[in-house]
Design goal:
By secondary structure, the chain is of the alpha+beta class. The protein has one domain. The chain has four helices and twelve strands, in the order H-E-H-H-E-E-E-E-E-E-E-E-H-E-E-E. Strands 1, 5, 6, 7, 10, 11 and 12 form a seven-stranded mixed sheet that branches. Strands 2-3-4 form a three-stranded mixed sheet. A hairpin with a 6-residue loop joins strand 6 and strand 7.
Length: about 160
């Protein structure tokens, strides 16, 4: 199934994603950990709710590969959980989002042509003509190294 997003839809999606964590290879390690750790985690609700998540550890239900994470006070899931997408938002204060995505396809910049996602997704985001990114910073998640950056639209 191909979903076509035109510039306004793409704009809306990108604006909603204030912070995009691009973890090259790191997502495969997100689900690692002991079974005891997983036993403490709650299932992340499949659908967004107006109620904030209770602080604590959560695990994905549909997202592949499985991942778990901890949230503090004021976080909520802001979009339906999919096998390739989870979005969390911080309530109150500055609006921002934390997105986990398995990016398999992207739009070729300045066209509506869908192509396979590049191996260097961070580089693709940095050179996209409609996006502005922060400098990538090294991160480690579950013992796997990756990069994190902020993505938005130039003003």
């Amino acid at each position: 199934m191909n979903i076509t997003l035109h510039r306004p839809a793409l704009t809306k999606l990108a604006l909603g994603v204030g912070v995009l964590m691009v973890m090259i290879l790191a997502l495969t390690a997100c689900g690692s950990g002991s079974a005891q750790e997983g036993a403490k985690a709650r299932s992340l609700p499949l659908y967004p709710s107006e109620k904030a998540l209770r602080p604590g550890e959560y695990h994905s239900v549909k997202f592949k590969p499985p991942l778990s994470f901890k949230v503090g006070k004021g976080w909520s899931n802001t979009a339906a959980q999919l096998s390739e997408f989870i979005q969390l938002g911080q309530q109150g204060g500055e609006t921002g989002f934390l997105t986990f995505a398995n990016v398999k396809e992207v739009y070729k910049p300045t066209t509506s042509i869908v192509v396979e996602a590049p191996e260097d997704l961070v580089g693709w985001l940095q050179h996209h003509p409609y996006l502005k990114t922060s400098k990538p910073e090294p991160v480690t998640l579950g013992g796997v190294k990756g990069e994190q950056l902020e993505v938005g639209f130039p003003r």
